[in-house]
Amino acid sequence: MTTAPARPDAPPTGTSGPYVGAPVDRVDGVVKTTGAARFAAEHPYPGLAHAALVHATIPRGRVTWIDSAAALAVDGVLAVITHENAPAMRPVKTQSVLDLSTLVPGSTVNHLASDEVHWDGQPVAVVVAESRQIALHAASLVRATYRELPSTVDFATEKRNALPQKKSVVDPGRAAKGDAEAALSTAAVAVDHLYTTPVHHHNALELHTTTAVWDGDRLTVHEPTQGIDWTRKHLAHRFGVPVENVRVIAPFVGGAFGGKWHVWAGTLLTVLAARVVGRPVRLVLTREGVYRTVGGRSPSEQRVALGADADGTLTALIHTSVTQVGRVGGGPEPATGLSRYAYAAENVLVEQKQIALDLVPNTYMRAPGEAIGSFALESAIDELAHELGVDPIELRMRNEPERDPIDGRRFSHRKLREVYALGAERFGWAGRSLRPRSTRDGRWLVGTGVATAFHPANLFPANVTVRISADGGVLVRCGLHEMGMGAATAQAQIAADALGVPIESVRVEHGDSTLPAAPAASGSTQTASIASSLLAACEKLKRSALALARGSADSPLRGAKPAEVQARDGGLHAARGGETYAAILARAGRSSLDAAVGAERGFAAVAGQVRFMSKFLLDRRRWVRAASGAQFCEVRVDAHTGEVRVTRWVGAFDVGTVINAKTVASQLRGGIVMGIGMALSEATVVDPRTGRIVNPGLAEYHVPVHADVPPIEIHCLGDPDPTMPAGVLGAGEVGITGVAAAIANAVHHATGRRVRDLPVTLDDLL
Amino acid sequence: MRINGATTVLELEPRVSLLDALRDELGLTGTKKGCDQGACGACTVLVDGERINSCLALAVQYSGREITTVEGVDHPLQAAFVANDGLQCGYCTPGQICSAIGMLAEHAAGAPSAVTEHLCEPDPELTDAEIRERMSGNLCRCGAYNGIVDSVREVAVAEQLR
What we know:
The complex is a heterodimer of chains A (766) and B (162).
Chain A: H1 29-34, E1 49-55, E2 61-67, H2 69-72, E3 77-82, E4 116-117, E5 123-129, H3 132-139, E6 143-148, H4 155-158, E7 163-164, E8 174-177, H5 180-186, E9 189-197, E10 209-215, E11 218-222, H6 228-239, E12 246-249, H7 265-277, E13 281-284, H8 287-293, E14 300-308, E15 314-326, E16 347-357, H9 370-388, H10 392-398, E17 410-411, H11 416-427, E18 440-441, E19 444-456, E20 464-469, E21 474-477, H12 487-499, E22 506-509, H13 526-550, E23 566-568, E24 571-574, E25 577-580, H14 581-588, E26 592-597, H15 602-622, E27 623-624, E28 626-638, E29 644-654, H16 661-680, E30 712-716, H17 739-751, H18 762-765
Chain B: E1 2-3, E2 6-7, H1 18-25, E3 44-47, E4 50-53, E5 66-68, H2 76-83, H3 93-108, H4 128-134, H5 145-161
Parallel strand pairs in B: 1-5
Antiparallel strand pairs in B: 1-2, 3-4, 3-5
Helix pairs in contact in B: 2-5
């Protein structure tokens, strides 16, 4: 066991070297601290025009009249585009697992193609003007009247009408073993409660923005997206141009957290506007515009019921959820997903239901499902521990499963016992009183809490090319996404170790659809997915270099076999000596050597997709793969005001191999910080009468600030998962899971008050 | 306008914010727009050494003032942010850095904060709680707060030793 900085003891092939595991500085640290890094809205174009949106003010109905005259009369306005004059976009395609780009539309609405309104905030017009100031002013002058149709917008009243979620290949939505209800009714000890979570918004600090430039039927788009390739394909389809004609550029994304996975209205309408005015057009959404046109995390009501024997052995586990989608898009929030794998209960029932509302469609937000599901499940287990009078960690360990509790699949890397032991030791858990309200420090009631973190690990196919040049420089090319994870840094480390070269000689080109396509950065899959292809490409490259050297009478590598060759010191080395890549290339008279993995096109790409999907499903049948962790915290609650302060945090994690001790710790901390917000302050409030978001801004939706965040200690096991490329399980999302439960559990320990509705606020504790 | 030590002549509508003037007119895109409402601090710049939200400032009001953006900053904080990983996506980073420079100057001038115990104390100690309180106008959604506080503390201690 190691703590950050962590080094895996036995890394799998291809990752042994000085860089993987080390706390390497970000390769883009300097450009980000000097202002030199250019984000999407920061590329100048001659003749650039600026767009602003006009939003619908009803939840459902039709536009009966729209008046652009006052806007058009403003000096500098180039166009007001409404459903009355907008050129048509093609409708969205039907979703298909054989073309994952069909999953990216944020909604099924064909914007400005008709007078229909599907949610409050849907764009009903786009104003294009010479400046942003003029566009925003003119947009405020566009008047619309509506014929309103009946709508349903209130989750609280509609949740009783929820229907079981449709089964899909990635999320069955329901799983059962035995008869959980019967076992619950006969259990010696039981808890059975409802937990609720509100709508959350990502609030990446970079506003959603699009710059669209048409040159004939060629389109260039600067767009902070998590999915360059799928965005490109989607835009090509919607605007009826060949995919090769569309270029999407996003080297730096100013935070995303799921919110920049889909293609939302603003993106499409900017591309449309650029076509209408025949000039480059930029749209920077207002912060309110982001709330009104980009989905957030679904609210939830969850029931968790646990039944146990007197010794704490679980006999029943029931976790059901109701979440929402938009009537015109969005998808299931797999809130009960982790309860399939969490505890070795004899009888299990997990089931997800959903309702469709006339609201902007929901979307993925950091750890969709697990973030809110872990709040309910891990609060309930704490409640059961309290009922039983046992330590909550002890209760978890008594019910730790050896295999998937429902279908017996093996865990590829289940290390919860280890992370709990590590975390408990670092936190100083031993000797904690079981009695709530047992510690007071002046006006502060002090409590500690714990919860399990869990997030599934997956892989997607990625295309990568690697080149070694005669000067010894290495160029990795991959359209991967850098949104703060240190993605390019991690791949530079992996390439440097795999090829045995100094990291300074590795350059990673990323964030552009002209590069070999990467999968979307989502599901904590990016590092492992790209590492898989990158390691294979480096292996190919080393074999090519060896092939050049071993045939040459002058090379110390003459006759060397691949198995006996080591990559180090900028070249290849065997028992009888070695030489640098530069020397190998110079002798062969080559300027560079290249290797490509997965760069398939046309039919081969479709076949690759089929191959991938079948392997994906096969793997899912074989293994339960996941990152996991244990969240420990101390809270202080003001006995007079109910104010909750988080004062101490220890997170112990199994994320498989730690590629970069510095950036992995930062990602995990970032998840915990977002979880602190979820626990104590974050909630998007939807007006139950009108469906309008009433707090669409950072002054009213409270994300954690410096003062809310204590020092967060991160420890990682650093032990590679044997079934994942480079041993990586992913670190982007597991950090947020379990956080809200750990805090609610600590609040209960501090005050004796159990809060089951997020966020935990003063009024809950007075 | 005096920006990063150079004088620039601009013709602007009176409603153009200092932030938009910097980004759109002058191409100084290091200063970021996160909310355009003074709620996030991403647009923080220094005016005559004091930190302000440039999205809430009208450019025309700042004629003749000495404006420093991240492009004009050359400060040990920048290296400290990289070493301590006080950033992730990098979008709030220029604002955090400009804000920290302004904050250190405020502290050096003896200004108290909401968590300063004795308001009349001439030289309040720059504890982590003080740093966090004084930097709370700068949001970081990636949650790089620990690294930012470490960076500010490190640089503050180094400056005191100097």
